[in-house]
Amino acid sequence: xxxxxxxxxxxxxxxxxxxxxxxxxxxxxIFLGASVFADAFFVAFRLPNTFRRLFAEGxxxxxxxxxxxxxxxxxxxxxxxxxNDVLSLLLLILIFIVTIAEIFTPYLVYLIAPGxxxxxxxxxxxxxxxxxxxxxxxxxxxxxxxxxILNTNNKFAAASAAPIILNIILIIAILISYxxxxxxAKQLSYGVTVAGVIQLIFLIYISSxxxxxxxxxxxxxxxxxxxxxxxxxxxxxxxxxxxxxxxxGTIIASFQTGAVSYLYYADRVYQINLAIAGIAVGTVSLPxxxxxxxTKNILKVSNIQNRSIELSLLLSIPAxxxxxxxxxEIVNALFGxxxxxxxxxxxTSDALMLFxxxxxxFALVKILSNFFFARDNTKTPFYVxxxxxxxxxxxxxxxxxxxxxxxxxxxxxISTWIGVFIYLYILNxxxxxxxQKKLFLNSLKIIISSIVMSFVLVMALRNYAIYLEYxxxxxxxxxxxxxxxxxxxxxxxxxxxxxxxxxxxxxx
Length: 508
Prior knowledge:
Elements: H1 3-32, H2 36-74, H3 76-103, H4 105-112, H5 120-133, H6 136-152, H7 157-161, H8 163-179, H9 184-207, H10 223-239, H11 241-253, H12 259-294, H13 298-335, H14 342-356, H15 359-373, H16 379-403, H17 407-429, H18 437-463, H19 475-496
Helix pairs in contact: 1-8, 1-12, 1-13, 2-3, 2-5, 2-6, 2-9, 2-10, 2-11, 2-12, 3-6, 4-5, 5-9, 6-9, 8-9, 10-16, 11-12, 11-16, 11-17, 12-13, 12-14, 12-15, 13-14, 13-15, 13-18, 13-19, 14-17, 15-17, 16-17, 18-19
């Protein structure tokens, strides 16, 4: 398998999904801005969307793929039995969680958005919308199971394409609501759950070539299934630490008017790079890394480790620099329309810039945690991630009254970078990080190419500043051209330094 080709397939569909997501969010910004309805929907959507990211974007796979790979290496009969048992128990757990959440929704909203209590309208809307969206958790989690089946078989296209369905449905919901003069936020909530159902059906159909699901509820649970679910909870926290930090941020931000919306929009922008540099690379590398560990192929383990880190840096370093330099222009071009004011642009872009400093760390945490998951070690990532979240909370709570909601991206960035260094320290101490001289040399080349790109980007933004102002109608077109040109310069620089050779990223 080639990391670049596999990651490219994953990234392509992820990119399509994120582009459609941007269109969706642009429409939300136009019609809802940072209003009460927007804040209520974003809180209602935050919970199932966090679970979507936790389960669908690699976390479920982090626990499932190593166990499923072991079953496959054993024999097909054990493989199918294990998968059916996991599916059956997962379905029971999900039904129980959603039922409890539906009964105690007001308390749940209070837990994730305590600041809403001061505004009856905002709180009641958030409760109503959350009850509508929460069943999405069942469908997206089951979708992640079937995605894990596909990923284990090195089939990444369908799993990465499935989230496209969500964004298409939500765009349709917005447009229908607008023209029919319906409550846009409420219809969006219904759209979330409907999209989950369609997404699940799609993945069941695609995965049927490799696996025929059979629901069977047993009183006796096998040791393998017990071991899997024992790993699942720590892997959720470990692999999804960025998403948990965002959820923590939402809780704290709820005390400041509009802050939930600002963080949501900023999150939407930087998440596209995380999806490619962290999640895509991590998702495609985990199955082969897990197999390499189980077959004790140390040379292959070293190669996968180094190429995963290198590919992640290749994607995340220029993205980080780009977000820091052009945060205002990006937010303005994407969301600066209709109800989304100049002030909203400024608040969101400030948050985005601060998240930009953490983009590399967000991606590396995902990659480095996989080095433990592939060994069936979920305890170490669990402890590290718990510490990351703890530091995030301490910083956010301590300085929120002085700095406001911007402390949230600051805390998220600082805590995640601390996590990166802790991972590196542990891996080095255990002699499990098999770094090659080639990695350091190529990292230097990536930094040089990124500096060249940043110079071009700064000059272009200065020369065309008048065409990027809030009121200019074609600002998004100019930004796409500028960013595209800067990206091309980066790729050409990387190519001239010998970084983009496909053969360098083969894992076999």
